[in-house]
Amino acid sequence: MARRYCYNDVLPLTAMVTAVSTNVGVNILFKEATSKGMNQYIFITYSYVVAALVLLPLSFIFPRRATVPSLKYFYLGSRLFLIGLIGFLAQICAYKGIAYSSPTLASAMSNLGPAFTFILAVLFRFLLLSSNPKT
After folding, report:
1. Domain for residue 70, yes or no?
2. Domain span at 115
3. Total structural domains within the chain
4. pTM over 0.70, yes/no
5. What is the share, in percent, of the chain residues with pLDDT greater than 90?
6. Is residue 46 included in any domain, yes or no?
7. Cα–Cα distances in angstroms (integers) from residue 120 to residues 32, 39, 108, 126, 130, in the given order
8. Contacts of 47 (CB under 8 A, 6+ apart)
């Protein structure tokens, strides 16, 4: 009973708090590093290297049980490349914004992601709103 409570309720909450805390810490580190003269592209490169070094051993500790589709299909490979490029460009834009403002503002803006997702879901009719509540 206690183990199921931990996996269902405590573990997701801990993961979310850890992710947000890490994001805030990286924003503060970026502001300090760039204020002392470090180039933002070098910082992004270092952050990708550290992320790869942290995530690579985890792939050997927790292997996948499902088969992975091969990357020989150009369509799948191009989609993965495009998603990675969008993430990279978003990170560059975010760090450029932190260079002009403060890490506090960047952390507050990152918390608006779910609100923007909700608004886009309503606009593209993925989510329908009803004016009369069901009781």
Report:
1. no
2. 2-63+76-123
3. 1
4. no
5. 16
6. yes
7. 34, 34, 19, 8, 16
8. 26
